Amino acid sequence: MDAMIQLIHVSKWYDRRPALSDIMIEIEKGEFVLLMGPSGSGKSTILRMLIGEEQPDEGQLFVQGKNVTKLKRSEIPYLRRKVGSVFQDFRLLPKKSVFDNVALPLIVQGVSDKDIRRKVTETLRAVGVEHKRDQSPSSLSTGEQQRVCIARAIVNGPVILLADEPTGNLDPELTGEIIELFKLINARGTTVVMATHDHHVMHQVNCRVITLMQGVILPDRAVSERVVV
Amino acid sequence: MRRLFYLVREAWVNMRTNRMTTIVAILTTAFTLTCVGIFLLVYVNLQRAAGWLQEDVKIMVYLEDRLSRDGRLQLELMLKSDRMVGSVLYISKEQALTEFRAQFPADSHLLEGLGENPLPASFVVTLAPSFRSPESMKDWVEQVQTMEGVAKVDYNQRWISLLAELIGYIELAAIGVGILLSAAAVTIIGNTIRLALFARREEIEILRSIGATGTFIRIPYFLEGAVLGACGSALSLGILKMGFELFRQQVQFVSRFSGIDGLISFFPWSACLALVAAGMVLGLAGSVVSLLRVGEGRG
Predict the structure, then answer these.
(1) Which of A26, A29, B95, B144 allows an S-S link to A4, with CB 3.0 to 4.6 Å?
(2) Which DSSP string corresponds to B198-214?
(3) CB distance A80–B209 less than 8 Å?
(4) Pairwise CA distance, residues B95 & B155, whole Å
(5) A138 Cβ partners below 8 Å, 6+ apart?
(6) pLDDT, tens only, A115-148
C-alpha cells in the first residue's frame, strides 16, 4: 500500500472543545476521498492540518511519508507546493488577470518565463477558461472563478489536491461540471481530498467517503471497511 | 526574471495604491533627515575650519637673552630633528624689532625710550600635520618649555581648545539628534509598511497558501521601505542644498561675514550618495521592524 496521507490518533481542541478526537485516516496515492459532515464536524480542520496551517494537539500527520507535525516553519511553504488547495471563496487576486493568478505558484517557485507561459496555457485549457486568460477574475462567473482557482491549485503539478467546499457557492449544474473536473484531475494521478457537506456531491463521485461528526469518524456501512478507525 | 519583475512590481503597486501614505512618509522622513543634515553640515564645516586653523597655528619659542649663538644653533638643530616638527624659522631680536615697527608704526615710539631692544629672539615652529591636534600640541609645548635657553613658549591654545570643545559638543548633539530622528524615520516608514501589509493581508494569505516563502512575501515590503528611505533622504539633501545656498547668499551681503561664504561648503557627492544609502538602510530597518511586528519576519 502506497500511503499518501496518514493521520494517526490525531486530536485537536479549540478552547477545550474537541474539534477532532483520535482520528485515524489513511489515504492512498491516486485516491479520491470525500470528507463529509456538517459544519463544525472537523473537515476543514483536517485540510488545514494537511497544509501545515494548524497543528494537532495530539497524534501524528504524514504527507508523502513526511511528518507534517515535525516540519519547521520554513519547510511549510515547500509542503504547500506539493499540496494544491481549492477554496469555497476562490481567493483570487482581483487586480491580476486570470493568467497572472494561475501563474502565481510558478512565479513563487522561480519557474522560467517560457515554462510559466506553457504550463499556465495548458492548465487554463484543461480547466476550460483559456479564452478568459487576460480578463480580471471579477468579470468571470462563479463557475469560471472556481475553474481558475482549480487551475492555480494544479498548475505546478501537486501530488495532492485539497478542496474545501469547492461547490459551496455553485448551483447544481455548475457543481456537476466542477466535480467532473476534479475527477479528471484525479484520473491523471493526483490524490484528491474534498471536504463537503453536500450529499449531491457524494452521489456524483463514486469514491471513498469519510463521514465526520463532531470531530469523530462515523463508521459507514458502504465504506467502513476502507476507513481505518 | 518574472519573479524579480513580480517582486519589483508588487513594491511599486504597494506605493502607488497607498499614494497619499507614501507621499506623507517621504515628506516626514525628508523633514527628519533634514534636521539631522543641518547638524551634519555644521559639524562638517566646523571640522574643516578647525583643520585650517590647526594648520595655521604657529608656536612661538622665545629665547633667553643670555643664550649664546652656539646654544641657539644647538637648540635649532634639536627642534629641526624632532619628528613632530614640520618647520622652524629663526627670528632674531633685530628682525623682531623691524617686524614690530612695520606692524605697529604708531606704537614704535614706545620702544625708543627703552634704549636696548626689549624684544626677544624666537623660533617660529609649525608642527608636522599628524601632530597638530590640541593634545599633541600641548604635550610638545610642555616638553620644549623645559629646554635650556627657552624663556617662554606661546601659542593660541585657548582658542584652539575652545574650538575643539565646540566641535565635540556639536558632534555629540549630531549623534544624539541623529539617533533620535533616525528612530523617528524608522518608525514613520515602519508604520507605512504596516498599513501596506494590512491593506494586502488577504493577498499575503493567498501567497502563503500557494507555498510562497516568508522571504518572497517580505521582499516587496523591504524594497518599498528602501525606496521610501532613499527618496526621503534625497529630498532632504535637496532641501539642505537650497537652504545652504540661501544662507551663503545672505552671508555675502553681511560685511562682517564677508569671505565666510567662500570657506563654507556643501557635502561632497560621495557624502550625498552615502546619505541616500543611509536613508535606504533606515527604510529597510523600518520594514524589518514592521514585518517582525506582524509576524511576517518569522517562518
Answers:
(1) A29
(2) HHTHHHHHHHHHTT--H
(3) yes
(4) 19
(5) A94
(6) 999 999 999 999 999 999 999 999 999 999 999 9
Residue type, B196: A
Which of B155, B172, B194 is at the close of a domain? B155
State whether B186 and B259 are in the same domain: yes
Average pLDDT for A20-36: 94
Name the β-bridge partners of B269.
Answer: none
A77 to B3: CB separation less than 8 angstroms, yes or no: no
Q: Best mutation site among B205, B208, B210, B219 for testing chain A: the one with the most A CBs within 10 Å?
A: B210
Nearest beta carbon to residue A116 from set B2, B13, B210 = B2
Q: Are residues B151 and B111 in the same domain?
A: yes
Show which of B155, B183, B201 is a domain's final residue.
B155
Q: Which residue's C-alpha cell is 590640541?
A: B134
CB contact under 8 A, A74 and B212: no
pLDDT at A64: 93
Strand A58-63: give its sheet, edge to edge.
Answer: A17-28, A3-14, A58-63, A66-67
**Per-domain boundaries in chain A:** 92-149
pLDDT along chain B (299 residues), means of 10: 81 82 88 88 83 77 90 91 91 88 76 76 89 82 90 80 80 86 87 84 90 90 92 95 90 68 84 93 91 58
ipTM of the complex in this document: 0.86
B49 shares its domain with B111: no
pTM attached to this predicted model: 0.71
Distances (CA, A) of A133 to A89, A182, B159, B191: 20, 20, 77, 36
